[in-house]
Amino acid sequence: MNALVRTPAAPPRNRLKRVLQPLVSPQVFDFWASQVNPAWSWERPLGRIVRRHAETADSVTLWIRPNRHWNGARPGQHLNISAQIDGVRVTRSYSLTSAYPVQGCVSITIKGIEGGRLSQYLHKRARVGDVLDLGQAFGDMILPATPVGSWLFLAAGSGITPLMAMVRAMEQQGMPVPLTLVYWARTRGEFCFADELRALAARHANFNVRFALTREDGIADDETTGRISELHLDELVDNLESRQVFACGPGGFVDSARSLLESRTQSFQAEAFTPLPQVVQEGGEVQVTLAASGRTLTLPRGTSLLKALEAEGLRPPSGCRMGICNTCACGKSAGATRNLNTGELAGEPVSALKLCINSAVTDLVLDL
Q1: Could you give the 3-state DSSP secondary structure of residue 237?
Q2: Which residues contact 15 (CB under 8 A, 6 or more apart)?
Q3: Where is 256: in which H helix or E strand?
Q4: CB 76 within 8 A of CB 166
Q5: Strand stretches in the chain, DSSP E
Q6: 54 forms bridges with which residues in the sheet?
Q7: Sign of dihedral through CA atoms 23, 29, 31, 35?
Q8: What are residue 298's DSSP bridge partners?
Q9: Which H or E element spans position 160?
Q10: Looking at the predicted structure, is the pLDDT value of residue 31 above 50?
Q11: Half-sphere exposure of 96 (CA within 13 A, CB side)
Q12: Where do the domains of the chain lie, and which CATH numbers do they carry?
């Protein structure tokens, strides 16, 4: 006689979900569940702020405990954060500064940007206990699960955030490979994580950190002065040709790092936190038809489609606004567009484009 094979019972939450699914919509469930616990939802990833820590005068780290619908992240990745601000939902992308959960929490570090609605809200108004909408993690500049070889991290300004997650991940592994971090900021007071980075360098012989100041003189032994240059890198980094490089910062910084190192090192990968200046200036207007709503708008050339649509009162989904996260990706069924960062034309009749970094060249039909 064959033995009876028992199918494991479904977890209570899954059984309850199957029972409720035909009876209640996710939106209704989320509304009533939030009255009991704001971090409960049917399927939306949410996170509760459990700790705030001031990093500098204009930046703060928020430790967030995600609910079970968030799928986790790898060091170097980003996620979209959304919050209701004065009745309007605002979404932006932030790098995780600690991607591996510590006591069930991950962290983001936010600089309060002048005019930035979400960054100012998170920096000044968000409090412990508040619940934020989380997007799933994204980004291709990620630390391998088992790093090998020698590494060089180059950070400028807010570009330290994804690299800090990688440094912390390597530290959890005992700093298994040689790693040098060179971190640029205008003034000493703008460096985030300086004490932690120095403590890690003192604890691990494999880890070397240098702080580069562009508007102050270096004083400490691990400080230097000046913008990124070939002379600078040769002075600060040994065995440069054997390094695998990750660089992150403003567009101009990343562009300089690439031109200096891409042909000299084992590998080079970078992300820019601000787009490069537009390389094309075009005048005139085009007709943009929104297929889903049936509207036709007159929009300017030379301006990102996202900004042009927002100026008309529309609110397409958006996140990073730099062409990284794909939140604003939209189908195009007719017309030609131009990538405002590269100047490249795209005239395929049926394609997808990112609204935040593309402008209209001809009349368009968008799947909006």
Answers
A1: coil
A2: 9
A3: helix 251-261
A4: yes
A5: 46-56, 59-66, 78-85, 88-102, 105-111, 131-134, 150-156, 179-185, 207-213, 223-225, 243-250, 267-274, 285-290, 295-300, 329-334, 337-339, 345-346, 351-354, 358-360, 364-366
A6: 60
A7: positive
A8: 287
A9: helix 160-172
A10: no
A11: 32
A12: 25-134 (2.40.30.10), 150-274 (3.40.50.80), 285-366 (3.10.20.30)
Determine the residue type at 248: C
Digit-coded pLDDT (tens) for 70-129? 999 999 999 999 998 988 888 899 999 998 888 899 999 999 988 889 999 999 999 999
Q: Which of helix, strand or coil describes residue 33?
A: helix
CA distance 67 to 45: 6
DSSP assignment of 182-211, as one string? EEEESSGGG-SSHHHHHHHHHH-TTEEEEE
Q: Is the separation of the CB atoms in 77 and 128 below 8 Å?
A: no
Q: Return the CA Rg of the chain.
A: 23
Angle at 323 between CA 264 and CA 111, to 5 degrees: 85
The residue to which tokens 């019972």 are assigned: 9
Structure tokens at 168: 């912390």
Contact of 99 with 74, CB cutoff 8 Å: yes
DSSP codes, 283-331: -SEEEEEETTTTEEEEEETTS-HHHHHHHTT-----SSSSSSS-TTEEE
Structure tokens at 42: 């049917």
Which helix or strand (DSSP H or E) is residue 261 part of?
helix 251-261
Instruction: Give me 322's structure tokens.
Output: 């730099």
**pLDDT tens across 118-158, in order?**
999 999 999 999 999 999 999 889 988 899 999 999 999 99
Beta bridge partner(s), residue 108: 62, 96
